[in-house]
């Protein structure tokens, strides 16, 4: 997936050299040259990172940043500023900047900061599994549907994670059993069915059925419309 960066910078020379350099490194970069265009561009996101100049014609960088954060957006913002006084940096960070870089800066330093942000974004993404309104945060073990926390046992959570990783695929009982119970499936135990039923109950408190039984085959996780024809239910 390409990493999309927005740079809001009025000095054409700086903007050009940053844009050229980042594009050469494989990033997708868009540019806005003043505060108002910057605000439009911010709203047209999502972005993976924003490079934001402090002094801009129109709305300045600090005002833009404040507005962006008030709108609830947590996209990483790297502040570019000629102001290197400690109090100015602190103001930037206090208003929601993730990092700052004082002008003049070397491109390699900017690139290093952007890469840190990109790695952090990647790590966050890989910690979150989701399907429509259902998601599991693998780091905090929090599972939600439609914004409400689900109450799941460890086995139910493991089942949900497996289903999320294989949405739309038929998962046989053998495969599920071996992954979750780490044991061979003897076809006799009904532990699997019991756990699937309780997971279903919890999920269906907050939305339509997403775990469909494929008679004689196993289960499919996903939209009912996609599976009813095959499932024959
Ligand atoms: Ca400027």
Lateral arrangement of strands in the main beta sheet: 2-1-3-4-5
Our count of helices gives: 9
> Which ions and ligands are bound to the chains?
calcium ion
Q: Kindly report the name of the CATH homologous superfamily of the largest domain.
A: Response regulator
> How large a portion of the residues is in β-strands, by DSSP E?
15-25%
Helix content: 40-55%
Mean pLDDT: 89
Describe the overall structure:
The protein is α/β, with parallel strands linked by helices. Helix content is 44%, strand content 21%. A five-stranded parallel sheet has the order 2-1-3-4-5, with helices on both faces. Helix 6 packs across helix 8. The relative contact order is 0.09. The chain binds calcium ion. Calcium ion binds next to loops.
Show the helix and strand layout.
Elements: E1 4-8, H1 12-24, E2 28-32, H2 35-43, E3 49-53, H3 61-70, E4 77-81, H4 86-94, E5 99-102, H5 107-126, E6 128-131, E7 134-137, E8 142-145, E9 148-149, H6 154-165, E10 170-172, H7 173-180, H8 191-204, E11 211-214, E12 218-221, H9 224-231
Parallel strand pairs: 1-2, 1-3, 3-4, 4-5
Antiparallel strand pairs: 6-7, 7-8, 8-9, 10-12, 11-12
């Amino acid at each position: 997936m390409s990493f999309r960066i927005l740079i809001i910078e009025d000095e054409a020379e700086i903007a050009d050299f940053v844009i050229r350099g980042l594009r050469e490194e494989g990033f997708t970069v868009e540019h806005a040259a003043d505060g108002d265009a910057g605000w439009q561009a911010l709203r047209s996101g999502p972005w993976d990172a924003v490079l934001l100049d402090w002094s801009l014609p129109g709305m300045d960088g600090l005002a833009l940043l404040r507005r962006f954060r008030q709108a609830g957006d947590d996209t990483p913002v790297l502040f570019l500023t000629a102001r290197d006084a400690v109090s100015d940096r602190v103001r930037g960070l206090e208003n929601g900047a993730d990092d700052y870089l004082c002008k003049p800066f070397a491109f390699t330093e900017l690139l290093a900061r952007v890469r840190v942000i990109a790695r952090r974004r990647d790590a966050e993404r890989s910690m979150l599994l989701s399907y429509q309104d259902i998601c599991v945060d693998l780091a905090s073990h929090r599972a939600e549907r439609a914004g409400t926390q689900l109450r799941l046992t460890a086995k139910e959570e493991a089942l949900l994670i497996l289903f999320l990783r294989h949405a739309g695929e038929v998962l046989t009982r053998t495969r599920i059993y071996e992954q979750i119970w780490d044991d061979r499936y003897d076809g006799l135990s009904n532990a699997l069915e019991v756990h699937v039923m309780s997971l279903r109950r919890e999920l269906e408190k907050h939305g339509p059925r997403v775990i469909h039984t494929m008679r004689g085959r196993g289960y499919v996780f996903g939209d009912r419309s996609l599976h009813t024809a095959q499932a024959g239910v």
